[in-house]
Structures are given as C-alpha cells and as structure tokens.
C-alpha cells in the first residue's frame, strides 16, 4: 500500500513534466516546410521568391486635380455702421488697476456665522445688482459691506436706498476702498 502511495504521485509528476516539455526549435523552424494532417507539405517561411509583386494597374492621372485659387483684388468698401468690427479706441488695451484709498462703505450685517453672512451678501447682490458687495472676516465676526464711495454723501444715498429695500440698521462707515485708475 505504501508503494502505491509513493509510486502513483511520482508517475503523475513525471507524466506532467513530460507533457509540458517544449518541443525543440529545430523541428519547428528547421527547413521552412511543414506537413499538414493530410500529408501535404506547404511553405511556412516567407521569402522574396515566395511573394510575387503585382504591379499596380490603376492610373490616377485622369483624376488628378490642382486647386484653382484665383486672387480677388481687395476693394476699399465702406463699413456698415450697423455692424461691430472692432474697438474704435484703445480702451480695451488699457488695464484698470485697483488701488486702495480711504473712502466709505455701508455696513449691512455683522454675525459670527459664515452661512448667515453669505446669505445676506447674496440677498444684497441680487436685490441691488451692486458688484461691490464684500464679506470681510474681522475676528470673530463676519461683516457684510457694500460700496466703494469716495464721498460720504454718495454712501448715505445708497444707505437710504437699502433702508427702502428693507435692510434696516445699516451704518455708513469709513473704510479702505478700491479705486480703479
């Protein structure tokens, strides 16, 4: 019984090794000819003699075309005033740079919660269409401010308009503002 247990695995391993062994390359690539199952030999190697070049018999010359580009003389025509062609002045080429200077802003709301301050800032922006709506963080409070005014009178006019829109308790404060030059 012990012989069978030792003999059977050794036969199985040797059979496995023999069946997985590689075929020598001499028999696979030796003479360039192979024999199929019917006993016919055929060429497996591609050489210059086995491939015959066929000349290309189609003539493309009747189908050739050359691009016929004709030059059209440029005529000075009047431009239609109803169409936009370009900027007439050089204002688009100049860059306006913001410079900080002393001025006035309107303080709308002060809170210690960012979402509340952001919602007030959004409400101001949507109701007034003022682009100069600022949300400043001065520890520990968020402050919502509107406007960049150089004179206190202009800031008071906006303060009155904001009171009319329903924003009560607004204050005109002096602050550093952006002036574009």
Question: Could you explain the architecture of this structure?
Answer:
The chain is α+β, with helices and mostly antiparallel strands. The chain has a domain at 98-180: Alpha-Beta Plaits. Helices cover 28% and strands 25% of the residues. The protein is built from 4 helices and 6 strands, in the order H-H-E-E-E-H-E-E-H-E. A 4-stranded antiparallel β-sheet has the order 4-5-3-6. A hairpin with a 5-residue loop joins strand 1 and strand 2 (41-43). It is flat, with a radius of gyration of 45 Å. The mean pLDDT is 75.
SS content category: alpha+beta
CATH H-level homologous superfamily name of the domain at 98-180: Sporulation related repeat
CATH class of the domain at 98-180: Alpha Beta
State the helicity in percent bands.
25-40%
Mean pLDDT: 75
How much strand content do the residues show? 15-25%
What is the C-alpha radius of gyration, as a whole number of Å? 45 Å
CATH architecture of the domain at 98-180: 2-Layer Sandwich
- Spatial gap, N to C terminus: 105 Å
What is the spatial order of strands in the main beta sheet? 4-5-3-6
Shape: flat
Q: For the report, how would you describe the main beta sheet?
A: 4 strands, antiparallel
N-to-C series of helices and strands:
HHEEEHEEHE
| Low-pLDDT windows of residues | none
CATH topology value of the domain at 98-180: Alpha-Beta Plaits
Helix count?
A: 4
DSSP, total strands: 6
